[in-house]
Write a structure and sequence with these properties.
It is elongated, with a radius of gyration of 36 Å. It is an alpha/beta fold. It has a six-stranded parallel beta sheet, sandwiched between helices. The protein has a six-stranded parallel beta sheet with strand order 13-12-11-16-17-18. Helix 3 crosses helix 4 and helix 3 (about 50-70) packs antiparallel against helix 5 (about 100-135). It has helices at about 1-20, 30-45, 50-70, 75-90, 100-135, 155-170, 185-195, 220-225, 245-260, 280-290, 300-310, 315-320, 430-440, 455-460, 485-490, 515-520, 525-555, 575-580, 590-600, 605-610, and strands at about 150, 175-180, 210-215, 235, 270-275, 295, 330-335, 355-360, 365, 380-385, 420, 445-450, 475-480, 490-495, 500, 510, 565, 585.
């Protein structure tokens, strides 16, 4: 039989190996070899326990039947059946024929049967327990379509889930599938903790279902397990544990893995949104997969965002509200009834939305096009609206005879500015270059941080990988000091430009950056925010003292500008409200999460945000209503007077 042949082959193998070890320094016994082979089968075969159970049961019935036939009057076949009944039902041994040997054999078979059933229950229990554990670990394939796939898990994940949930609310909810190289139980715990926070800061899914799977997103089998090809969009988050270049290299491989699936089984890969850490690496994705993925350079985006917010107080709240699904956001939609109309004519054709651009049928996006730009067939209108189902085209019968006299258009003259950066960023060179495009010639940039000037110059050149900064408008002043020390902030002296000094009340814009030096030295998100908060409070206290002194001496004084603070942890927002600092702040991770979520819903939004946050093309400004409405006492008319530009 099979069992006999298996036992014989194993015996010969064990014997052969044992004999081969004879004469060596570490001889082994037959029992050790048998133990080794049994352990091997138990670790490599899922059926080892079942085979052991069947083998033990077969041997018990066979040996018991032989013993019963020898001790009693039954035939072999009858003894086999009797032995089976003793094994299957322990109570039947009470009806065993009289005689000490027969009853002893019956009792022994019954005890063996009890052991067999105990072993069987144990095997079944282990099997069920393992299956339940596998279900808890999420080993099964995700059966979903039109869902959002998130690859990786970072500090931004909860905020992205919140934004996508807001986007899905109008549709009654949706599904988000998270694939990360972390235990599924840990991911579910993160989500549970986010949902159990205090009201107002707790995560609200609004009907959206979140499914977690544990695995390596770089593996094709894992991507197929989360049904990537039937998804609505794919979000690829940059790993925070790696250096920027290593993380971006990982992202390139991830995009290649997704590209390899494109077209499999006749399905195209959905739109992919990739988070990148270094703007210099963004071109890699164009090389490996052109027009396949939308690249979000997180550090660069936040830097540009902070530059605009610092130069125009109050802009932070406006831009932040446009970059999430809370309040109004950007939407593209085709309206055939507007074909042939000029952009000026459609300015008032939406009662609950503001048109700000056009996406042509060729795919080109125009922000703030000329008034005579004609809407062609297939063009989509870019609007700012509360939701994609909250606005419609009106019938065009709006009132047009009301004339509002406007002042003559005049371009604002750029003025020379003094700007201060406190802290150091890895992409400081890119940030300075961006700022140089915004400011007037002769403007000053004061860099205040703990990095020595010699090292600072090398960092700006990226250890020789970049050329010297070529600035047309900015003059850079280097200051070495600790933003957490009051005496360093009270008297700011540049180490170049003949030791020129600066007072905090003379600065037009102040940016408090999340210091990358502290992060590289092991600082957490919360500790970075603590440093930023301390710096903010010290600066505001010094500014207040300088303001009071000048007001007392001169009778009047210009109120100093409020700093813009970069905040990484959303929980720090409540602390800013507690101290009533009155300063603007930029929630870095929150904004990046909102942008990623918006681009995952519509990839064309990336082109819109790219233009709005650069010095080239259209930008966002805050202007006095008097620039648009000339009549005094009629400023409320501005609300109904559509303007753009």
């Amino acid at each position: 039989s099979f069992i006999g042949r298996f036992i014989l082959s194993e015996y010969n193998l064990v014997k052969e190996k044992a004999e081969s070890m004879v004469g060596t320094r570490n001889p082994i016994s037959i029992l050790e070899m048998i133990e080794y082979r049994v352990e091997h089968y138990f670790s490599t075969s899922q059926w080892a326990k079942v085979a052991l159970l069947l083998t033990f049961t077969f041997m018990l019935i066979s040996m018991g039947a032989v013993a019963l036939a020898f001790c009693g009057d039954d035939s072999i076949s009858g003894a086999v059946w009797l032995a089976w009944t003793f094994v299957a039902d322990p109570g039947t041994h009470a009806d065993a024929p009289e005689g000490f040997l027969v009853r002893f054999v019956s009792f022994s078979i019954t005890v063996g049967g009890m052991l067999v059933f105990a072993l069987m229950i144990s095997i079944i229990s282990d099997y069920i327990g393992n299956k339940i554990d596998e279900l808890k670990k999420g080993k099964s394939r995700v059966i979903e379509s039109d869902h959002t796939v998130m690859l990786g898990w970072t500090d931004k994940s909860i905020a992205i889930i919140q934004q996508i949930s807001l986007a899905n609310e109008s549709e009654g909810g949706g599904t988000i599938v998270v694939l990360a190289d972390a235990p599924k139980e840990d991911l579910e715990e993160h989500l549970s903790l986010a949902m159990s926070q205090e009201r107002g800061s707790a995560l609200e899914l609004m009907g959206t279902n979140v499914v977690f799977r544990s695995g390596n997103p770089l593996e094709e089998s894992e991507l197929q397990r989360v049904s990537v090809l039937t998804a609505r969009s794919v979000i690829v988050l940059s790993p925070e544990s790696l250096s920027p270049d290593e993380a971006d290299a990982n992202q390139v491989r991830q995009v290649m893995a997704l590209k390899a699936l494109d077209g499999a089984n006749g399905n195209e890969c959905p739109p992919v949104v990739v988070e990148v850490q270094d703007v210099d690496n963004s071109e890699l994705f164009t090389l490996v997969a052109p027009d396949f993925a939308e690249v979000i350079v997180a550090h660069d985006l936040i830097g540009r965002f902070m530059l605009e917010c610092a130069r125009y107080p109050g802009l932070a709240c406006v831009l932040e509200s446009m970059m999430g699904f809370e309040g109004s956001e950007f939407y593209f939609e085709e309206w055939p009834e507007l074909k042939g109309k000029s952009f000026l004519e459609i300015a008032c054709r939406f009662d609950d939305a503001v048109p700000i651009g056009i996406k042509s049928n060729s795919g080109e996006v125009f922000i703030n096009p000329k008034n005579d730009h004609i809407i062609q067939e297939g063009d989509k209108i870019l609007v700012l609206a509360e939701d994609n189902d909250t606005y419609e085209v009106n019938d065009g019968s709006y009132e047009t005879n009301k004339k509002i006299e406007s002042p003559p258009a005049a371009e604002d003259a750029k003025k020379v500015e003094k700007i201060m950066f406190l802290g150091w960023r890895r992409d400081m060179a890119d940030l300075i270059t961006q700022l140089d495009g915004y400011v007037a010639k002769g403007s000053e940039l004061w860099l205040f941080n703990t990095v020595p000037v010699e090292e600072r110059n090398e960092l700006l050149k990226d250890q020789g990988h970049k050329s010297e900064l070529k600035l047309d408008n900015l003059l850079v002043y280097n200051v070495v000091g600790n933003p957490l020390i009051r005496r360093d902030l009270s008297r700011i002296v540049s180490v170049d430009h003949d030791g020129e000094t600066l007072s905090l009340d003379e600065v037009d814009s102040i940016l408090i950056l999340a210091d990358s030096v502290s992060i590289e030295n092991g600082a957490t998100v919360m500790s970075c925010d603590s440093r930023s908060l301390s710096t903010l409070l010290i600066i505001q206290d010094i500014q207040k003292r300088l303001y009071d002194e000048k007001k007392e001496a001169l009778g009047s004084s210009i109120k100093p500008v409020s700093p813009i603070t970069e905040i990484l942890d959303s929980r720090t927002r409540s602390l800013l409200d507690v101290v009533s600092c009155g300063s603007a702040y930029v929630m870095s991770n929150q904004i990046i999460s909102s942008v990623i979520a918006q681009v995952s819903e519509d990839r064309d939004i990336n082109a819109v945000l790219r233009e709005l946050l650069t010095a080239e093309g259209s930008e966002t400004y805050i202007r006095s209503v008097s620039k648009f409405v000339l009549e005094k006492g009629r400023q409320d008319e501005f609300l109904g007077h559509r303007t753009y530009g």
